[in-house]
């Protein structure tokens, strides 16, 4: 066990998309330095702009002190070279959900960072053990699974791969609490806890719609207003985006050797193929105008 795991001050985030920028927000607001890198320079600039807008809104609403916002933004370093993350004690990867791309990145990171730097993945569906297999030091690789939108979704899964050092996971449990979130420890199985249980709601909702039992809006209303979920499955898939959600459903299905209860639906596949991704494309299971859902008649 390395005691260096216990004192995380600087966090490198790879991937400046929806998840990377959300994690960056809670990290800088909880006193950490963030080195944000994306292989698309425009994504880094977009993440920076989005963070500034979000913090300015929080200040306007009186939820954040103006000085605290300025100090937090001063802790954000925008990087156009992966090597700029070399001094971090923790790297959180939030890039495209593809095992080969994540493995290549982790291999590259190991050549850049110190030997006691923890390498964490925000993957929703890939095996932490498989990602770690690309590393010379697989014991430092841990799953660190945040949910979207990160500042509001308080639960975070910390996942031990088969070869993870439990001290690395312990450090992420402590860090999560420091960030004001609630960590839950999970073992490395497809979907971990939330996507294992939660996927069933999406795939079952899709099956009900496919069988013509009820509309998307009717199924959502039942799950939201009767079952007590914050959103129904179609509202949630529209928020996440089918470009993210459908590959996760397919990956979990295949990892469980085509177990029928995880089978994804052609209703979602055809929407993805047609670019009806959800909120981000203006149309998914619902229509969106100016970022707001157009209520079905
Ligand atoms: P996104 O598509 O919004 O952002 C991904 C970013 O990674 C993009 O800016 C892209 O330019 C960058 N990128 C891709 N390949 C890269 C590479 N090789 N090196 C550096 N940057 C690279 O994706 P999102 O939604 O932020 O998801 C990221 C990860 O988080 C995925 O693994 C996803 O499964 C996981 N996740 C997503 C959730 C969601 O609801 N969106 C929830 C929980 C986890």
From TrEMBL:
Residues 11-188 form the 3-hydroxyacyl-CoA dehydrogenase NAD binding domain. This is 3-hydroxyacyl-CoA dehydrogenase. It comes from Noviherbaspirillum sedimenti. GO terms for biological process: fatty acid metabolic process. One of its GO terms (molecular function) is oxidoreductase activity, acting on the CH-OH group of donors, NAD or NADP as acceptor. Coiled coil: none annotated. Residues 191-288 form the 3-hydroxyacyl-CoA dehydrogenase C-terminal domain. The chain holds residues 1 to 297 of 514 of the full protein. Keywords: Oxidoreductase. The lineage of its organism: Bacteria, Pseudomonadati, Pseudomonadota, Betaproteobacteria, Burkholderiales. It comes from the Bacteria. The keyword Oxidoreductase applies.
């Amino acid at each position: 066990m390395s005691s260096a795991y216990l004192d995380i001050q600087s966090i490198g985030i790879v991937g400046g998309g929806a998840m990377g920028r959300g994690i960056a927000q809670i990290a800088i607001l909880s006193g950490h330095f963030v080195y944000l890198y994306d292989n698309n320079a425009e994504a880094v600039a977009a993440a920076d702009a989005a963070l500034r807008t979000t913090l300015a809104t929080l200040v306007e609403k009186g939820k954040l002190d103006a000085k605290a916002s300025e100090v937090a933004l001063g802790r954000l370093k925008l990087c156009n070279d992966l090597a700029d993350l070399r001094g971090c004690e923790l790297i959180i990867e939030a890039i495209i959900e593809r095992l080969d791309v994540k493995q290549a990145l982790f291999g590259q990171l190991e050549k850049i960072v110190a030997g006691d730097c923890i390498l964490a993945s925000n993957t929703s569906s890939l095996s932490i053990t498989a990602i770690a297999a690309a590393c010379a030091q697989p014991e430092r690789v841990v799953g660190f699974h945040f949910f979207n939108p990160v500042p509001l979704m308080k639960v975070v899964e910390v996942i031990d791969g088969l070869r993870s050092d439990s001290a690395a996971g312990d450090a992420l449990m402590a860090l999560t609490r420091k960030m004001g979130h609630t960590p839950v420890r999970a073992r490395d199985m497809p979907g971990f806890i939330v996507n294992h249980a939660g996927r069933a709601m999406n795939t079952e909702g899709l099956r009900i719609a496919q069988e013509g039992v009820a509309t998307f809006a009717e199924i959502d209303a039942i799950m939201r207003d009767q079952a007590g979920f914050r959103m129904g499955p179609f509202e949630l898939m529209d928020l996440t985006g089918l470009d993210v959600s459908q590959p996760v459903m397919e990956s979990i299905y295949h990892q469980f050797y085509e177990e029928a209860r995880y089978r994804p639906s052609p209703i979602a596949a055809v929407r993805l193929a047609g670019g009806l991704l959800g909120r981000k494309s203006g149309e998914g299971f619902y229509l969106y105008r100016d970022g707001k859902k157009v209520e079905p008649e």
